[in-house]
Write a structure and sequence with these properties.
2 helices, 37% strand, 23% helix
């Protein structure tokens, strides 16, 4: 399983929208749009977990730099959360 970071999302992007976009590249384990707890609005980024490394690489090459819902999105391998 491979986790991808998806940045530059439109604030109206839903998890369903993210899921259906990435389904074009392969099987998805999960799709999450990160929400701001205070405003309950999207923070403009999310994470998608693809089932295999190959599907993750395909998703990166298909969607990185592409326009989705009016915004140019960034897709790359998610890095582990760094301690603050």
């Amino acid at each position: 399983m491979k986790k991808l970071f998806v940045g530059g999302l439109a604030f109206k992007t839903t998890e369903e929208g993210l899921r259906s976009l990435f389904a074009q590249a392969g099987e998805i384990e999960s799709a999450v749009v990160i929400m701001d707890r205070m405003t309950n609005r999207s923070k403009g980024f999310g994470f998608v977990e693809m089932t295999t490394e190959e599907e993750a690489q395909k998703a990166i090459s298909m969607f990185n730099g592409m326009e989705f819902e009016g915004r140019r999105i960034v897709v790359n391998e998610a890095r582990p959360l760094e301690r603050r």
